[in-house]
């Protein structure tokens, strides 16, 4: 098994295949794997009893209608909620153990969990098959300081410096961006060219239309994150690109 960056193109399933099961669940990730994907994206938060779990939102309202914050509930209590009928939300440790051949893009949604996440990566021998990302650049600074060997993507601070000031932070090897953000064009041919010259991989999220997937492949991006894995799979097959 090679490292995270060994493939020429990275096709990510964003929070797992949610056609049957809820996002960020073991079952959604298994369905992704069954489709042939081995690059998966998930989000990390911490429960009241300090378990790192795969949940995106600050609370449970969207996924089960309960206004309970993740950091105010123990992991065992999570398992008793009715939303688990639509899949099991694992701890990070459980996820990495369950999928030993998959690569994970781990989005740190909160500060001060980097040390715990790195400990879990060591315990599961998963340091070479993850990339850690975050909107909050300080979260990534912590990871880079504690273990510079672990792959990170750029946070907002470094993306802004790269795009507008041509000041790259080469501690990160990956640039993960949307095409646009709040009306501002983020991805451009000039930015992509700059990244290529710096040997930075460019992943674009979250792309859910076939025409956009094809356009980005033609443009030369290095990876796509999607909520529509079957669609992306078909586009990649048409372009003779391996999953």
How would you characterize the overall build of this protein?
- With 243 residues, this protein is an alpha/beta fold.
- It has one domain: TIM Barrel, CATH 3.20.20.190.
- 34% of the residues lie in helices and 21% in strands.
- It is built from ten helices and 13 strands.
- Strands 1, 2, 3, 6, 7, 8, 9, 12 and 13 form a nine-stranded mixed beta sheet that branches. A two-stranded antiparallel sheet has the order 4-5.
- It is globular and about 50 Å long.
- The two termini are 15 Å apart.
- The relative contact order is 0.14.
- The mean pLDDT is 96.
Question: What attributes characterize this protein structure?
Answer:
243 residues; alpha/beta; TIM Barrel; nine-stranded mixed sheet; two-stranded antiparallel ribbon; 10 helices; 13 strands
Helix content: 25-40%
Cα end-to-end separation: 15 Å
Q: How many distinct domains? A: 1
Shape: globular
Short description:
The protein has helices at 26-34, 61-64, 75-78, 92-98, 114-123, 137-146, 156-165, 189-197, 210-219, 229-238, and strands at 10-14, 39-46, 52-53, 59-60, 66-69, 103-108, 130-133, 151-152, 174-178, 180-181, 184-185, 201-205, 223-226. The chain is of the alpha/beta class and 243 residues long.
């Amino acid at each position: 098994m090679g490292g995270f960056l060994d493939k020429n193109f990275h096709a990510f399933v964003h929070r797992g295949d949610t056609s049957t099961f809820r996002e960020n669940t073991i079952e959604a990730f298994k369905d992704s794997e069954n489709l042939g994907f081995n690059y998966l994206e998930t989000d990390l938060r911490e429960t009241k009893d300090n378990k790192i779990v795969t949940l995106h939102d600050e609370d449970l309202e969207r996924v089960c209608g309960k206004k309970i914050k993740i950091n105010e509930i123990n992991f065992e209590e999570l398992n008793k909620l009715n939303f688990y009928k639509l899949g099991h939300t694992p701890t990070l440790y459980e996820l990495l153990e369950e999928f030993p051949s998959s690569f994970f893009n781990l989005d740190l949604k909160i500060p001060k969990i980097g040390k715990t996440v790195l400990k879990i990566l060591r315990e599961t021998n998963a340091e070479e098959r993850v990339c850690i990302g975050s909107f909050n650049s300080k979260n990534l600074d912590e990871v880079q300081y504690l273990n510079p060997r672990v792959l990170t993507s750029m946070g907002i601070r470094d993306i802004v410096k790269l795009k507008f000031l041509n000041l790259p932070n080469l501690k990160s090897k990956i640039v993960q961006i949307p095409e646009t953000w709040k009306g501002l064009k983020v991805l451009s041919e000039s930015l992509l060219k700059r990244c290529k010259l710096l040997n930075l991989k460019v992943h674009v999220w979250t792309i859910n239309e076939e025409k956009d997937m094809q356009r980005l492949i033609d443009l030369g991006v290095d990876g796509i994150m999607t909520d529509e894995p079957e669609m992306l799979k078909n586009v990649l097959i048409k372009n003779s690109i391996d999953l």
